[in-house]
Amino acid sequence: MDWISAVWTTLSATSAWMGWNLFLALVPFVLSIWLFRIAPSRSVLWWVGLLLFVAFLPNAPYVLTDVIHLVTDIQNNDSLAISTLVIIPKYLLFVFVGFEAYVLCLINLGTFLKHQGLGSFVPQAELILHALSAIGIYLGRIERFNSWDIVTRPHHVLSSIVESLIDRRPLAFIMVALLVIAGFYWLLKQVTLAVLLKKHYTKTLEQLNRTNRSEA
Question: At CA 70, angle to CA 191 and CA 193, rounded to 5?
Fold first, then answer.
């Protein structure tokens, strides 16, 4: 019972901010489904949704930076079993879900561009969004801005971006973040596409088998 209590305490200790950050990470994913798969036309509402998508997108890869809390949580815990079996898996799952949302966002965007005959622009669009996400991560982690500050405090956000791009240290942070995002994105994208392709192949094969049985 003491061990169960310790596990519950460990899980609940970070549940508030982890839950909130995951919610923010899933917002652009939900928007990407509507924008790039459901919305019938590019109306004014669609363009507003696209702006919101870009504004909230950095929240998904932002979860990578939350691993800074992992060291503190391990140091504050005296049990090796709790650290190994609870804390580390909790962070791994948290980061995976958040970053996978980012990967799926860009996959949805890429599919949309291909359907619009703009498939050749997919790499450029991905790179631009990687860069914007890296800037967003800097603004969130270092400058402590939120996504809605773009609307409520646009002048402060823009001035911070300009200062970041002309200062060596913020620029170095942004470049490292860009490389990390691009690297993790490429790896996880390959795995995600392989899984989606396998599911599509299995579904198609099942449909063919049902058709053959019905004809027989």
Answer: 10
What region does 144 belong to: left with phi over 0, alpha with psi -120 to 50, or beta? left
| CB neighbours of residue 178 within 10 Å | 18
Q: What does DSSP assign to residue 61?
A: G
Phi, psi for 205 (deg, rounded to 5): -65, -40
Residue carrying structure tokens 């949704």: 49
C-alpha neighbours within 13 Å on the C-beta side of residue 165: 11
User: Token digits for 67?
Assistant: 């691993």
pLDDT tens by residue, 84-128: 888 899 999 999 999 999 999 999 999 999 999 999 999 999 999
Which alpha helices (H) appear in the chain, and where do they start and end? Answer: 2-13, 15-33, 44-56, 68-75, 80-82, 88-115, 122-141, 149-152, 154-166, 168-215
Q: Considering only CA atoms, give the Rg of the chain.
A: 21
Whole-number Å distance between alpha carbons of 143 and 18: 20
| Assessment of whether the complete model's pTM goes beyond 0.85 | yes
Q: Using CA atoms, how far apart are residues 54 and 90, in angstroms rounded to an integer?
A: 28
| SS (HEC) of 149-161 | HHHHCHHHHHHHH
